[in-house]
Design goal:
By secondary structure, the protein is of the alpha/beta class. The protein has helices at 46-53, 76-85, 102-113, 117-130, 146-158, 176-192, 204-210, and strands at residues 2-13, 20-31, 35-39, 61-66, 69-70, 87-90, 164-168, 196-201, 213-218, 221-222, 226-227. Strands 3, 6, 7, 8, 9, 10 and 11 form a seven-stranded mixed sheet that branches. It has a four-stranded antiparallel sheet with strand order 2-1-4-5, covered by helices on one side. Strand 1 and strand 2 (20-31) form a beta hairpin. The protein is globular.
Length: 231
Amino acid sequence: MSIVMANDLCKHYGSSENPVKALSHAQFSMAKGERVALVGRSGSGKTTMLNLLAGLDRPTSGVLRVAGKDLPTLSSRALAQYRCRDIGVVFQSFQLLPNRSALANVEVPLMLQGMDATTRRQRALAALDRVGLSERAAHQPAQMSGGEQQRVAVARAVVHRPSVILADEPTGNLDSQSAEAVMALILEVVKEVSAALLLITHDHALARVAATRLVTMSDGCVKPAQRYHVT
């Protein structure tokens, strides 16, 4: 059963007379627990696909269902609930709140769900402990290395146990040693929470290590998938 399903998905920007076609009749699906790498050159449509799956933007036309929800039909309020319950996102640039502690950053999805403060804190501390940063809970992003910030971002992405995790070039701003450690961590926690993983990357070597299936995008179109024989 598909946890993600896009059918004839289109996204156009600009005027109707002269639209920029960021996605053109894209077909894409993911099974529960599957690890998929989405690769392609800059401008191929990867970021547009991410924004649609994350509920940050709406398609121009087509079908897009994630975790049983028909995203194009959801209200703004329902989309906000979807973002803090059903998906987790790890960004290349971390996207942490600069003036909040690591703990407060991890608590954000739980706070948006309306979880009580005591339970929220316990869950966030457990997530930080899982990524090896319980001793850094009170530190702000500027007081941490890039690798540590990305580990906080991973904790934030999984603290609410989402169905789908979107990782957008999650190692792009890290040195090779930190990148390897962060990617290994993402794969471990994805398995632990039984989430599907969509890894957006330009690095085919990383895709081969992290994913069981490769999907290529070009000029807003999804190419036939390549399956990796890995576990």
